[in-house]
Structures are given as structure tokens and as C-alpha cells.
UniProtKB/TrEMBL annotation:
InterPro entries: AcuA, Acyl_CoA_acyltransferase, GNAT_dom
Domain of life: Bacteria
Keyword terms, alphabetized: Transferase
Organism name: Psychrobacillus soli
Domain N-acetyltransferase: 23-189
Name of the featured protein: GNAT family N-acetyltransferase
BP-aspect Gene Ontology terms: acetoin catabolic process
């Protein structure tokens, strides 16, 4: 499968000034930018900066960023699912995962998260993919936002819906372990029926286990 990546960008006004939401961007460009010290949801900022540089080098890897001048203040990543996850078991070339999305606290609630998803889906090549995201409440900043799990999930759902992702049922044990966890996905308009059936089988792998 040819992994085409077409750059798109939107400038949006926030109460903290204008920011650029852009991507997919090249690993060299990411390396040249400052990675904000408040981007700490997944690992230490320096490590996460290095991680997204590496993802951008992958044939299927896509990084969309929120840029305030020369500083990355938000980002999302798209890549093939982790080899240890069930979503990689079908070895599907047209299934890609929204692996991480993060915005610094200062810019939360300004619409930049939704814009990250919109810019991601502006690339026509995304119509060739099933795009999935797995939402786990233990990754959410409940303390920092003051929201409970259900309020936070509603925020996450609205943000994902901006990119056309919607709720899909699954029997995945980790997702099923808490009712706030969920699988969301967008099936691109050019994805064939065979891939859709394969995705359905991955969603319900425990169906015939007794």
C-alpha cells in the first residue's frame, strides 16, 4: 500500500493568540521545533518529542501539530497499531491508529483538539484507511480538568467526532474493563468490504470462546 501524505494547515484564533494546526509534518521539521514542557501525558517531554520524530519517519506515520510560533503545544499521531495489540493481528495495511492526542492545558477548551482531527482528515489519503482510536480513562487528565470520567469521555467523543470517528462496540478485554473506555473509528470511503469484515472480526475476537 502506498502511504501518501498531503500537507494541510489551518490558522485558528484562540484567546491566547493565533496558532497553526498543520501536518502531516516531516521528522526534520519536528526536530527543529521546541516541544512544550507541559506535554507530559504519555512520557517526559524530551522523550515524547523524540518519539514523534521517529513516528514521522515511518511510511504510514503521520504527525499533526499545533504550533505557537516555534513551539509545539499540541499534537496527534497516526501509525500502525502496536504489534502486541489485537488491532495488529490482522496485519491490515489499511488500518491505522490515532495513537496519541495531547494539547497543553493552556490551549484546552479553545477548539485546537477538534482542529487537529479536522486537519488530519483533510488529507484525501485518509479515505483509504480505517482509522481507530482506543480511549482509556486512565490516560485522561481528570485531576487537571476537574471533570469526572463521563464528562471527560463526552469531551473526547466530541473531539473525535470532529474527525468523523464514531463509537464502535468491541469485546476487547481492556476496553471492556471499564464502561467509560471505548473504541472509536472512521471507515474511509474507499475501504473495501473485505477490510471492513476483517475489522469486524478484530472487534469481536472472543465471540466464539466459551
Amino acid at each position: 500500500m502506498i502511504h501518501e501524505k498531503t500537507y494541510n494547515a489551518l490558522e485558528i484564533e484562540t484567546k491566547h493568540g493565533a496558532v497553526i494546526v498543520e501536518g502531516p509534518i516531516l521528522s526534520e521539521q519536528i526536530a527543529d521545533l521546541v516541544f512544550h514542557e507541559d506535554l507530559i501525558a504519555f512520557r517526559a517531554p524530551a522523550q515524547q518529542h523524540k518519539a514523534i520524530i521517529e513516528i514521522a519517519k515511518l511510511p504510514e506515520g503521520r504527525i499533526i501539530i499545533v504550533r505557537d510560533q516555534q513551539t509545539i503545544v499540541g499534537y496527534c499521531t497516526f501509525l500502525y497499531p502496536d504489534p502486541l495489540e489485537r488491532w495488529s493481528k490482522g496485519k491490515m495495511e489499511d488500518l491505522i491508529e490515532l495513537g496519541a492526542i495531547e494539547v497543553i492545558p493552556k490551549f484546552r477548551g479553545t477548539g485546537v483538539g477538534k482542529t487537529l482531527l479536522r486537519v488530519s482528515m483533510m488529507d484525501d489519503a485518509m479515505e483509504d484507511y480505517i482509522t481507530i482510536t482506543t480511549e482509556y480513562y486512565w490516560h485522561w487528565d481528570l485531576k487537571g480538568t476537574g471533570l469526572n470520567v463521563w464528562e471527560y469521555r463526552k469531551v473526547m467523543e466530541k473531539m473525535m467526532q470532529a474527525g468523523g470517528l464514531e463509537y464502535f462496540a468491541t469485546d476487547d478485554p481492556e476496553i471492556s474493563s471499564h464502561p467509560a473506555n471505548c473504541l472509536m473509528a472512521k471507515i474511509g470511503s474507499r475501504v473495501n468490504n473485505k477490510s471492513i469484515q476483517q475489522f469486524d472480526q478484530l472487534r469481536f475476537m472472543n465471540r466464539f470462546m466459551y
